[in-house]
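Subject: complex prediction, re-run

Hi both,

The earlier run crashed halfway through, so I resubmitted it with identical inputs.
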Amino acid sequence: MKIHQLSVFLENKPGRLRAACAELAARGLSIVTLSLADTEQFGILRLIVEDWQTAQAALEKAGYVVKVNEVLAIEVDDKPGGLARILDTASGAALNIEYMYAFAENRGGKAVLVFRFEDPDAALRVLKKGGINVLENVTLFRLT
Amino acid sequence: MECHSLSAPDFLPLSALNETRLRRLQAIVSRAYDRVKLFRHRMEQRNLTPRDIRCLEDICKLPFTVKTDLRDTYPYGLFASEMSDVVRLHASSGTTGKPIVVGYTREDVAVWTEVVARCLAACGLQAGDILQNAYGYGLFTGGLGLHYGAEALGVTVIPISGGNSERQITVLKDFGVTAICCTPSYFLHLLDQGAQLGVDFRQLPLRVGVFGAEPWTQAMRERIEAESPIKAYDIYGLSEIIGPGVAIECAAQDGLHVFEDHFLAEIVDPETLEPLPDGSEGELVLTTLSKQAMPMIRYRTRDITALMAEPCPCGRTIRRMRRISRRSDDMLIIRGVNVFPSQIEVALLRVEGTLPHYQIVLTRESDLDQVEVQVEVTPEVFSDEVRALEELQRKLVHSIETITGIRAAIRLVAPKTIPRSEGKAKRVIDKRKL
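This time it finished cleanly. Structure:
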């Protein structure tokens, strides 16, 4: 099951991240997890929000450039070698990972990571076949 | 093609046109010689009198007039009429130093009205059309110039003037507006505002846009014509000559017809000032053939163009000039290289496909010019991957370098962070202390 991630362009200046988050807070939208990639000049804020359509509309209305991508939320055993197993499966199938980041919470000895694969559909097939738990939307958001 | 009777001079046989032009040139040179001290002085320095103008080609004997002549004789030093005969004054905003002042007799206002009416007729306007005139009314010649010409043609004019974009959009939507005139960058601003307010211009009865007062590009025309039902026409003019109404595009949208019965156009090499033949690119020099209050002899416009003598499909016999792509004084000298903002525009367009909002910022660090081009990120080019945006920056740098020979830094900035002016777009910020 693929989930939707929003990416937002931010200039690398004080207060820009706060302003973007405030747009979501004002509408009672909770950020499930996020990651920020930055360069000297600009940053890309990546967000997982349950009601991503409302979040996208709110950000665009406020003048932000927003892009929607499909990502996978993958359950990983929270012990040595847990991530390695996923990566083995991915590299065995020549899946290209653009980037990844984690959910803050851990559930019952499992961590959840967000993976942005170059080809999310191919990744989903391979991971499922490899017995790796790719979370359904509903399961994922119940976690928070 | 059916034409309004006002447009008849556009179709005069060349011999009749030239006869009128020579007669008017001789009269205006005499008038300026008799009444304008600066002009008489320059003629005397060259041992010239008005009788030395025997044919149209003799114009190249005459001295040039430049913008600083208007500043130096501020406010009325170049007037050839008594103040009691001057019925209108306009002035340019003048970003540096004093403004320049221009005056019109009643006959001058009538000529101005006529040429603007001929412009609008060439764009296909007629009685029954409703024109939203969003040029500024006031000292600027745009608002009143278009106003009188449109009324003379029988068009319904909405004198809304510039600014207040929300009201502009409401009027566009509610008044059955079929034509609009303003600067092209202001119309792009209205398109953006319309999109934010949920107004789709493509659903409106608009069909004609008359855009001028700043140089614009084919890319801007394509965007306007794609995002609205408008056919976008380029109008040309300048206060020193008369205001809007010196030249206009016809339905062919291939060059602007110059109203040669009132304005004599020459192209000269901006360095040597030697006249250039039709088809050669150079600086446009204009002489007013009928202006009474303030005759302008060989006025250097600083606009770079070429005259096109080939017949036009529309049947007009008056020559066309190519669209103004740049001004000789728009030129930036960066590390000794001549760069025009229009070149930067082409470079951005090649990479992105559509023209983003941009601004060129020049600074000087340890005696070396630094160029930064700030480019607003659009949804079309934005990516969730850093390397895709860095790749975009690299492509933009490369494209600018290929076209201008200058290596500029690219700064990607958030949408709507580059100031939109309600009038002319400010594309260059020069912070160099020279």
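Chain B touches chain A through 17 residues (CB under 8 Å).

- K.
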